[in-house]
């Protein structure tokens, strides 16, 4: 995709209003729409947000600007130091972000484990936490390296629900003991 095409897509996306009950993201120049999240999803996001100390800014569904990417992902939770929080704006610069969180749904498995993993690593976001109520696990990704589609996280730790997740960048251990699961959903092969 050329720079002109990327700019045009970004301009289109900025003015795009998804239908009621849907969420839209721009991922590597592709407009991706998803249905509203499940209660299990929302409860997990709220639980994680409540565990993060108030010295951190904790923003749900904040559009993120990834430098050098035709991407504007909308993580389920964005965490950054409060003193880094801009006073306004639709796009949060990736350089300010300490952690992003995605909670996996039936329709987001590939995007959360593959596409967004690479996008967040390309943006240099230090911590990417994937919480997966299908597989009852958390995948903690740290140490981003590389650029573009070749970007990835050098360190990966898989933690089962019920075990604490060491969130070193935030100075806490995340309690996963009350995370719910999605019943009657076929297991997947990720990460």
TrEMBL record:
<dbReference type="InterPro" id="IPR008538">
    <property type="entry name" value="Uma2"/>
</dbReference>
<dbReference type="InterPro" id="IPR012296">
    <property type="entry name" value="Nuclease_put_TT1808"/>
</dbReference>
<dbReference type="GO" id="GO:0004519">
    <property type="term" value="F:endonuclease activity"/>
</dbReference>
<keyword id="KW-0378">Hydrolase</keyword>
<feature type="domain" description="Putative restriction endonuclease">
    <location>
        <begin position="18"/>
        <end position="167"/>
    </location>
</feature>
<dbReference type="InterPro" id="IPR011335">
    <property type="entry name" value="Restrct_endonuc-II-like"/>
</dbReference>
<dbReference type="Pfam" id="PF05685">
    <property type="entry name" value="Uma2"/>
</dbReference>
<protein>
    <submittedName>
        <fullName>Uma2 family endonuclease</fullName>
    </submittedName>
</protein>
<keyword id="KW-0255">Endonuclease</keyword>
<keyword id="KW-0540">Nuclease</keyword>
């Amino acid at each position: 995709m050329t720079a002109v095409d990327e700019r045009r897509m970004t301009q289109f996306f900025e003015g795009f209003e998804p239908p009621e009950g849907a969420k839209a993201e721009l991922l590597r120049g592709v407009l991706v729409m998803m249905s509203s999240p499940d209660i299990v999803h929302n409860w997990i996001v709220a639980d994680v947000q409540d565990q993060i100390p108030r010295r951190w800014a904790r923003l749900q569904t904040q559009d993120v600007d990834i430098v050098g990417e035709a991407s504007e992902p909308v993580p389920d939770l964005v965490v950054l130091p409060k003193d880094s929080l801009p006073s306004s704006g639709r796009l949060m610069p990736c350089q300010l972000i300490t952690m992003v969180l995605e909670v996996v749904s039936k329709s987001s498995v590939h995007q959360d484990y593959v596409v967004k993993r690479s996008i967040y690593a390309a943006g240099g976001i230090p911590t990417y936490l994937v919480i997966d109520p299908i597989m009852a696990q958390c995948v903690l990704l740290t140490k981003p390296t590389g650029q573009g589609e070749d970007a990835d996280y050098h360190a990966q730790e898989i933690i089962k629900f019920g075990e604490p997740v060491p969130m070193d960048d935030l100075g806490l251990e995340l309690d996963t003991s009350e995370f719910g699961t999605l019943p009657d959903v076929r297991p997947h092969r990720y990460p």
